[in-house]
# Entry
Amino acid sequence: MVLQIPQSRFPDQIVKEVVQTALRNEADLARFRHEQFAKECWGLEQKFGIATEVFLAKFEAGELGDSEEYFDWFAAARGRAVWKQKADVLAEVAA
# Structure
């Protein structure tokens, strides 16, 4: 997919550089957010002694109960996945 940039009063090269820089900055932010969620998951993995993927399977199957901490872990796991995807997409588009 090729992004179409609307006509600008600025030279195409300047527009391209500014947009690429903005996308790289957003990719950096997305990577940072992903890392924060990954650290949160890691801490919970250490506390409960299971990998996030195992936790998710058990949680989604209703095997773990309704602890608030489990919901936080679930949210962190989802956040980790969402921000990883955003970082990957932005990095690819900014290239």
